[in-house]
C-alpha cells in the first residue's frame, strides 16, 4: 500500500473501503476524507487521525476526526459504512481568539506569531517552526479576533505571506515563492502527466477601496498617532484619508516626550475636522516624540490605485480601527491584484510539492514561461503509487 491510516492510535488501513483523499491548501485547513467499515468500534469525533507514507513513518497528514457520516445500504443493514472527514490542526485557529494591540509602533513577526500560538489551546501542541523568517508588522489592534483571521491579516499586510501548520505541528509563515518546488517543468523535463492553464477571470485590479471599522460606527473608540518631530514641522496630522472628512472629535490625550500636555493651551491647538495638532512659534526639537489620541471616525475609507484606475475592487475590514493597519492591507491587496495572472491545474507523480513553493514553468508547447506559486496540493492514492494534482497561480510581478 502507498499509505497507512491510524485513527486514535490504531491502524485502520485494513478497514478502508476505498483510497483516502488528501488536500493541502494554504491559509486553510488541510482535509482528508476516507470511507471505512466500522472495524472494532466507531471512531469518535475528535479522535486523532494520522496518514503515513508507504514507509509507515513519514507523516502525510496529522489531524482529528471532524465529521462522521454513518450509513448502510438499507435501514436494517448491519454492514455499516462510515465516511470520515478529518481536518488538520489549522482548525484550532478558527476557535481560538486573541485581543492584542500594537497601535503606536510596528512590531516583529517573531513577537506576533508566538502571541498567536499562545492563544491556541494548549492541548493542540502547536509550536513555532524553527526556520521562521522575521518581518516587520505594521501597527494593529485585535479585539476578540480569531487566530485564523489574525494570521490571514498579518500575511496580507506583509504582501501575501502564507501560513501552514505542518505534520509536526509547527506553525510557519513564509513569503510566497521563498521556497522552491522540488522540480521545474520544462520541455525537456515536463515532470507532469497533465498541464492545463487559463487566464484568471477578472482583469488586473488597479484600484482598491477598503472600508474599515464599520463595526465601531458611533463607538467613540480612541485612535492614536505616534510621530517624531523633524525639527522643522509645526503641524502633526492624525490618520485621515482623502475620502474621510468627518469631524474626529476633541483630542483626548497629548504626550510630548511622554509628558502629558494640554493640546488646547498655547503653543498647541487641535483642529478636529482635519485631525491636526499645531504648535505655534518655534518647531519642536528634532527627535521629540509626539503622541495624541482622538475619537476615531468609523467607518473610514482607504483608497489606493496605480495612478490611472480602470478596474476597482472593494473590500471590508469591519473590525479594523487602526488606520495604518488598513493602509497596509489596501497596499498589499493592490500589489497582489494589479497584475495579469494565469492559473494552472497540473497532475504529476513527483512528490514533495507544498503550498507556497515557487514552481518554474517553461513549456513552449503550452505557451507558458513564468514562475507560479503552488496554492493547493491534492494527493491521490492509487494502489502502491501516488499522483498529485496541483493548483498554481502565476507569481505577482
What does this 3D model show about the protein?
With 397 residues, the chain is mainly beta. The protein has 4 domains: 87 residues, Phage tail proteins - horseshoe like beta roll fold; 81 residues, Phage tail protein beta-alpha-beta fold; 76 residues, Elongation Factor Tu (Ef-tu), domain 3 (Beta Barrel); 130 residues, no CATH class. Helices cover 9% and strands 43% of the residues. It has 3 helices and 31 strands. Strands 1, 2, 3, 4, 5, 6, 7, 15, 16, 17, 28, 29, 30 and 31 form a 14-stranded mixed β-sheet that branches. A 4-stranded antiparallel β-sheet has the order 19-25-21-22, with no helix packed on it. Helix 1 packs antiparallel against helix 2. It is elongated and about 85 Å long. The relative contact order is 0.16. About 2% of the residues have low confidence.
Sum this structure up briefly.
This protein is mainly beta and 397 residues long.
Q: Which properties best describe this structure?
A:
397 residues, mainly beta, Phage tail proteins - horseshoe like beta roll fold, Phage tail protein beta-alpha-beta fold, Elongation Factor Tu (Ef-tu), domain 3, 14-stranded mixed β-sheet, four-stranded antiparallel β-sheet, 31 strands, 43% strand
Amino acid at each position: 500500500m502507498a499509505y497507512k491510516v491510524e485513527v486514535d492510535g490504531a491502524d485502520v488501513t485494513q478497514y478502508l473501503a476505498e483510497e483516502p483523499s488528501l488536500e493541502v491548501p494554504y491559509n486553510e485547513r488541510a482535509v482528508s476524507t476516507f470511507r471505512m467499515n466500522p472495524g472494532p468500534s466507531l471512531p469518535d469525533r475528535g479522535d486523532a487521525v494520522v496518514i503515513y507514507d508507504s514507509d509507515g513513518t513519514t507523516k502525510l497528514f496529522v489531524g482529528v476526526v471532524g465529521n462522521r457520516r454513518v450509513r448502510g445500504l438499507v435501514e436494517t443493514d448491519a454492514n455499516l459504512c462510515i465516511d470520515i472527514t478529518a481536518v488538520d490542526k489549522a482548525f484550532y485557529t478558527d476557535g481560538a481568539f486573541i485581543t492584542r494591540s500594537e497601535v503606536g509602533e510596528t512590531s516583529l513577526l517573531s513577537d506576533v506569531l508566538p502571541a498567536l500560538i499562545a492563544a491556541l489551546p494548549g492541548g493542540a501542541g502547536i509550536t513555532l517552526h524553527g526556520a521562521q523568517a522575521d518581518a516587520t508588522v505594521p501597527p494593529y489592534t485585535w479585539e476578540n479576533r480569531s487566530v485564523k483571521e489574525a494570521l490571514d491579516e498579518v500575511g496580507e499586510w506583509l504582501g501575501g505571506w502564507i501560513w501552514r501548520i505542518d505534520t509536526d505541528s509547527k506553525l510557519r509563515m513564509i513569503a510566497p515563492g521563498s521556497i522552491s518546488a522540488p522540480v521545474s517543468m520544462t520541455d525537456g523535463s515536463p515532470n507532469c502527466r497533465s498541464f492545463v492553464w487559463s487566464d484568471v477571470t477578472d482583469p488586473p485590479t488597479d484600484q482598491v477601496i477598503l472600508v474599515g471599522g464599520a463595526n465601531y460606527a458611533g463607538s467613540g473608540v480612541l485612535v492614536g498617532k505616534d510621530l517624531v518631530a523633524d525639527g522643522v514641522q509645526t503641524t502633526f496630522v492624525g490618520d485621515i484619508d482623502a475620502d474621510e472628512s468627518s469631524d474626529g472629535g476633541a483630542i483626548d490625550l497629548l504626550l510630548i516626550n511622554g509628558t502629558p500636555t494640554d493640546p488646547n493651551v498655547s503653543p498647541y491647538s487641535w483642529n478636529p475636522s482635519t485631525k491636526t495638532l499645531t504648535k505655534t512659534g518655534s518647531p519642536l526639537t528634532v527627535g521629540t516624540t509626539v503622541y495624541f489620541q482622538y475619537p476615531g471616525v468609523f467607518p473610514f475609507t482607504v483608497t489606493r490605485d496605480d495612478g490611472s484606475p480602470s478596474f476597482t475592487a472593494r473590500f471590508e475590514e469591519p473590525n479594523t480601527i487602526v488606520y495604518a493597519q488598513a493602509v497596509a492591507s489596501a497596499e498589499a491587496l493592490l500589489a497582489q491584484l494589479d497584475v495579469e495572472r494565469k492559473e494552472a491545474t497540473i497532475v504529476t507523480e513527483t512528490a514533495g510539492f507544498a503550498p507556497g513553493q515557487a514552481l518554474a514553468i517553461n513549456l513552449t508547447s503550452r505557451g507558458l514561461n513564468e514562475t507560479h506559486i503552488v496554492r493547493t496540493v491534492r494527493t491521490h492514492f492509487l494502489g502502491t503509487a501516488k499522483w498529485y494534482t496541483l493548483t498554481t497561480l502565476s507569481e505577482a510581478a
